[in-house]
Amino acid sequence: MNKKLFQARGAQRVAGCLVLGLSFSLLGACASLRVERTPLAPVTAPAQTMTLKAPLSGMLSNQDSFGVPAGSRWVQAGSVPQGDAYRRDDALFILSGRRQREAYLVVQGGELKGLYFPGEGLYTAAPNSTRLVLESQ
To answer: What is the pTM of this model?
Structure first.
């Protein structure tokens, strides 16, 4: 009798560990940011600049949100295959999610296409293209 009880409790512990492990892996999969390694080609001509006339907000694939204030100034740092990469000129643009990292806006045709993380050489697409409202230069 005691042997059967001991085996049943051991099976419950194993099952509990499996459920807990599966839960953590699913949680990790939901919270991961979809990125791709992308080289940044530095600017060779005079860098373009832009100033946001309206605030910008968005959400990443891992459901982290970000915001950029109106009046922020941006200067072209280079280009990636997805568009031109702009770094913030008047302050650092830091995303705070599972970890903090600097980000550049990736813009093509006046629309935000995604973000580039210069420290890691990674790009993440914006789920929806967003038209930027810019001040005239």
So the answer is: 0.74
